[in-house]
Design goal:
CATH superfamily of the largest domain: Gcn5-related N-acetyltransferase (GNAT)
Structural class: alpha+beta
Distance between the termini: 43 Å
Oligomer: single chain
Number of helices: 9
CATH architecture of the largest domain: 3-Layer(aba) Sandwich
Strand content: 25-35%
Order of helices and strands: EHHEEEEHEEHEHEHHEEEHEHE
Radius of gyration: 22 Å
Shape: elongated
CATH topology of the largest domain: Aminopeptidase
Number of strands: 14
Number of domains: 2
């Protein structure tokens, strides 16, 4: 007599599921496994987390699939609540339980979560500040892209990850010359200083995306506790006015930006090169960017040694 297939229960996550969930996560998303600390920080302790924000597939106590569901309960600066949008930051099914309807049931549960909260659109996975990767890896998880496409998701943007070996990084001569040219025009690149705080936050508010403003504020709060170094931020200054910045968080390089009126003058190249050089001085051997575009990779990033690592499909679906 043939044994029946094990029953799969779709239910909210419980604290006792953590170890089983992390084991499943590593099998389901082999390039993106996480530690318990990162999981708690980016999922369970997210300020928008609800009781049903993490849905799991359970077979006799073993977690074989999972999906996150987030809506904004706190507005993002310059963005607001995104009242129409829900976010999936991670979604996976254990390889041994694929093609058995588990992924479809998890996605249906997530869509139900979003509909009950009045959302008309789902995005994977540009959720700040706690996204893991920008979208779905188009090469490593091609089956996942196909699964989502079949169920109504479309790719509306692309994110590219890049890495650079910086253990031998030197500032290129042409960048040093550009820095001299800018200085002759009254534009200087230097470290952030504590007296810059008010002007720096105002620059971020006026010139940069809202999530970057929140990121800048969070890092400066960490600085007051001694957990974020001043030399991790470089500024471009024009006659006392901040017109560009670049930063790193350990080996994580960026973000960086230059005010619109000053773009195309090589300021970004100087900021990036100075930041990479400082990272090397601080003992880092590599730098990585998780989310950029093809143009930037072929441009300023490529000129300073970054090479392509991963390509992500940033996807969305309109809910009926």
């Amino acid at each position: 007599m043939e044994s029946s297939a094990p029953e799969v229960r779709i239910r909210p996550f419980e604290g006792r599921d953590t170890e089983s969930l992390l084991q499943c996560w590593e099998k389901a998303l082999p390039l993106d496994g996480v530690t318990r600390d990162i999981f708690e920080r980016k999922v369970l302790l997210d300020e928008n987390y609800e009781r049903e924000s993490l849905i799991v597939a359970d077979v006799n106590g073993q977690i074989v699939g999972f999906i996150t569901c987030f809506i904004l309960h706190k507005p993002i600066e310059k963005v607001g609540f995104r009242d129409d949008t829900g976010f999936i930051t991670v979604f996976g099914v254990h390889p041994e339980f694929r093609n058995q309807g588990v992924g479809s049931r998890l996605l249906e549960a997530a869509e139900d979560f979003f509909r009950k909260r009045g959302r008309s659109q789902i995005c994977i996975a540009p959720y700040t500040p706690n996204y893991f990767v920008p979208g779905v890896d188009k090469d490593r998880y091609a089956e996942g892209v196909a699964f989502l496409t079949k169920r109504g998701f479309v790719e509306y943007s692309e994110g590219i990850a890049a890495d650079a070996l910086i253990s031998k990084f030197e500032i290129p001569p042409e960048v040093i010359e550009k820095e001299r040219e800018l200085a002759a025009q009254g534009i200087f690149v230097r470290h952030y200083q504590r007296d810059d705080l008010v002007d720096y936050i105002e620059f971020q508010r006026q010139c940069m995306p809202g999530p970057w403003v929140e990121d800048a504020r969070r890092n400066l709060v960490e600085l007051t506790y001694g957990r974020f170094p001043e030399d991790a931020i470089w500024l471009a200054i024009d006659r006392g006015k901040i017109i560009g910045f670049c930063q790193n968080e350990r080996e994580h390089f960026g973000p960086f930006g230059v005010a619109d009126a000053y773009q195309g003058r090589g300021i970004g190249s100087v900021l990036l090169a100075r930041t990479l050089y400082q990272m090397r001085l601080n003992g880092y051997h590599s730098a990585w960017v998780l989310w950029t575009g093809e143009r930037a990779l072929k441009g300023v990033y490529g000129r300073l040694g970054f090479t392509f690592t991963r390509r992500f499909a940033i996807m969305k679906k309109q809910l009926s």
